[in-house]
Amino acid sequence: MPLLVDTGVLYALADRTDRWHDRSVAWLAKARERLLIPVTVLPEITYLLHTRLGARAERAFVGSVTAREVDVECVRDRDLARAAELLEQYPHIGFVDATVVAIAERLKLTSIATTDRRHFATIVPKHAPPFELVP
Fold first, then answer.
1. What mean pLDDT comes out for the span 3-20?
2. Residue 129, preceding bond cis, omega within 30 degrees?
3. Strand partners of residue 3
């Protein structure tokens, strides 16, 4: 079963000064699941990498996606509809987080790799108890 990965973990893996870097690297070294990135995360992570770490970091990430080191999950119409519901139900989250949850629900995933405990810890998915948040 794949593991859905949010922006924060991807950024932490690239930025050695990020407070989540060591934990994320250690987690990734042990992870056996295939990493799955929602397509909505791609613009967010590439923007952060480019503006904070530079064009080389952005290119390296895009290269890893192109090389299929991670999989990208597209957003379907029903994911968008569910994201709209989640934005109403949880007004403190944004669109990207809502699509991560919607995709996790559609795929029946119970874990999300994220550094965003503040938002994801409050969300109860339709198909399971609250998500297990890693790392």
1. 97
2. no
3. 35
